[in-house]
Amino acid sequence: MRSNVPFTWSLIILGGVGVLFSSILVLFIILDFSSQTSYTRTAASTILQVPRPGLPVRLIIPAIGVDAPLEDVGLTPDGAMAVPAGPVDAAWFELGPRPGEVGSAVIAGHEGWKNNIPAVFDNLHELQAGNKIYVEDATGTTTTFIVRSLQTYDQNENVPEVFYSRDGKVHLNLITCEGIWNAALKSYSSRIVVFADAGTE
User: Does residue 95 surpass a pLDDT of 60?
Assistant: First the structure.
């Protein structure tokens, strides 16, 4: 009988300690969850407070004399990015980020229009790293981009890096045709892409 008393009290003590420990653990979990929830709400609030750029309306590239209005385009029936209707305008891909948003905004334009009519991106290949690109939006705000590099791709090459980025930064990519004209396909043999990053004056 005596031997059972200490054992019983031991169980009671251990049970009490267990309850106390469990209560403390639950309290810490609640406090930690509250802290994380508060942080998440604060972060979300901060993100929501950042205004979205307006719709892009004008593209300006002083180095090659471009000052062109912007159209909005989506996808063609075969799943490619659509292009501007004529040689003068450039076209922003409306299914991607707006210029100034995180990600890769894309703007396309023509080069080598028929009958030697000047096109907006005739001289895109002349851009160099460090050149400035400006995009004005419908609110009158201008976002500055700085050319990082130029790349040439085959017309059928898969280039997801033109439309997607995962570095959390703001990019702008300009696309036009170049190379040999294929009359049957009504297309040039390659594409040139200018990669630019958000910058300052």
Answer: yes
- pLDDT band for position 184 (50/70/90)? low
H-state helical runs in the chain: 4-48
Count Cβ neighbours within 10 Å for each residue of 119-145 and write b for 16 or more, e otherwise: bbbbbbeebeeebbbbbbbeeeeebbb
List, in order, residues 6 or more apart from 132 with CB less than 8 Å away. Answer: 61, 62, 63, 144, 145, 146, 147, 199, 201
Indicate whether 102 and 15 sit together in one domain.
no
Q: What is the pLDDT of residues 8-57, one digit of tens each?
A: 333 333 333 343 334 433 334 333 434 443 443 444 434 445 689 999 99
Full domain range(s) for residue 151: 56-198
Q: What is the pTM of this model?
A: 0.73
Question: How many domains would you assign to the chain?
Answer: 2
Cα-only R_g, the chain? 29
74 lies in the same domain as 134: yes
The Cα-based distances of 168 to 97, 147, 165, 171, 176 in angstroms read: 12, 18, 7, 10, 25
Q: Is a pLDDT exceeding 50 seen at residue 73?
A: yes
- 3-class state of residue 135 by DSSP: strand
Beta strand extents in 37-84 (DSSP E only): 56-61, 66-73
Do both 97 and 162 map to the same domain? yes
